[in-house]
Amino acid sequence: MIRKILHNKTSSIAAAALFVAASSLVSRVLGLVRDRILAGSFGAGDTLDVYYAAFRLPDLVYNLLVLGALSAGFIPIFTQLISKNDSDTVSVEGWRLANNIFSILLFMLSGLLLFVAIFARPLAGIFAPGFSGDKLEATVALTRIMVFSPLLLGLSAVMGGVLQSTKRFLIYSLAPIMYNLGIIFGALVFVPVFGITGLGFGVVLGALLHFAIQLPTMFQLGWRFQPVIDFRDASVRKIAVMMVPRTLSLAVGQVDLLVSTAIASTLASGSLAVFNFANNIQIFPVGIFGIAFATAVFPTLSALADKRYQFVASFSSTIKQIWFFIIPATVFFLIFRAEIIRLLLGVGQFSWENTRLTYEALTFFVISLFAQSAIPLLVRSFYARHNSRQPFYIGVVAVAADVFFSLWFSQIWGVAGIALAFSISSIINFIGLWWLLRRELKNLNERSILISTSKFILAAVIAGGITLGLKSILHSLLPMDRTIGILLQSGLAGSLGLLAYVFFCHWLGCTEVQFFWQKLAKKSSLLKTKLADQGEARGI
């Protein structure tokens, strides 16, 4: 029974989004648990600065070689190859392409990561110029351990692309959960034994679990690994053509991260850790809703690439579903940001000064949640239409703005200024992508989107006012100097505020509420709903 559920095909976008969102929620919660453990154990200081800096080079390799190929080209091309069949059986061509990409990545990642390991010291000096002495040596050592994780994650990503294309979203969604569990295990078990290098071992363990959990479903689908490296294959060439602009776009984004890391490394000790803590908190709703819906609808958008009206219907419906959740999340984050930081990070070695700096950075991050949550869907809309150039052009402009404002604002607000620069660049990115996609498709159902979004905003503002009132009342009734008081105040006021938001959305006639309740009421039918029975991607 369990095996059947895990391996079953998810034909409904709603069910796919539900699986991805639910697993993303669990994964993000585990990520916050991970951050709480790290904050309590080390505080925002040199140790975590080293930990986050050591991620940069492995992330650079993973993003350039893996995400460039898979996000831009593999899924659309692989989907075309298997769409010839009415059954769930992957064609021989499809498996050959998967093995070809798997083999190419294995070869290229191994060579590049070996280079990174050998030249880790001079490279670390470039992306963390503010580090020296023991801090720099620790960064080099941790980087050399973490280089194994991109190799495992890269191979895992190929399997994830296959599982998404064949709509096995449940097992695909469990992989990030295993990744965070591995990191948590490293923080709790490896660190007491190996010290800071235990954090690196935990990252590698998480990557291994990310890879291993997808293997059984791949075998169940019929995959058997056969080494194939054929750069002349037509499908590989198509992916290569599509990935070049995407890789350049990711390269620009990675340069942006490296610049942010470099700037943060020159600020007060713990600045890089504070930036990452605040970013991990604010990205929580983006991962649950923005990325989850974009991931779930991507295969459908790829299949509808040549059907403009259906494509636009899927896009507009999905963006409304995303903002239905993100707009109230923005309001509630602004209301409870201090309480969130105190509850999640305010333990052990995490000082009041760490809390204050994280609070300021989180405030600036949150103002761009609407843009950050929409960007994954906008970018995948271009990729589904085999267009990866235009997101690159907009990305260059956005990153240039981020670097410029980071250099400027960091001198005024410190690490919070880097967060503000990030938000401004995200909004620029969102506006540019929307404009280009609209120019390409002529219409994105903006009138319908604007009407729905206006209702979300009105309901969220009213609910936010009610929440603030309840928060003030509870503040005088509960022991706010204790964790239980903060938890009760936030939980009660937030829950009632959320109910108020849903009520006012329903009162205003938001169809997204109806879809949400319908899907919750029909959990047993989620795996049976056929995509062909739905005229558009309606989301949850």
Explain how this protein is built.
- It is a single chain.
- By secondary structure, the chain is mainly α.
- The chain is 82% helix and 0% strand.
- The protein contains 20 helices and no strands.
- The chain has helices at 2-7, 13-42, 46-82, 92-118, 120-127, 133-146, 148-165, 169-194, 197-212, 215-221, 234-265, 271-303, 308-345, 352-366, 369-384, 389-413, 415-441, 446-475, 483-507, 511-521.
- Helix 18 (446-475) packs antiparallel against helix 19 (483-507).
- The protein is globular, with a radius of gyration of 23 Å.
Which features would summarize this protein structure in a list?
single chain; 540 residues; mainly alpha; 82% helix; 0% strand; disordered C terminus
- SSE order, as H and E? HHHHHHHHHHHHHHHHHHHH
Which strand-content bin applies to the residues? under 5%
Name the poorly predicted regions. Answer: 523-540
Note the main sheet.
none
Alpha-carbon distance between the two ends: 25 Å
Query: How many β-strand runs?
Result: 0
Helix/strand-derived category reads mainly alpha
The radius of gyration computed from the alpha-carbon positions, rounded to a whole number of angstroms, is 23 Å
**Gross morphology:** globular
- Helix coverage percent of residues? over 70%
Please work out how many helical segments DSSP would assign. Answer: 20
Mean pLDDT score, rounded? 84
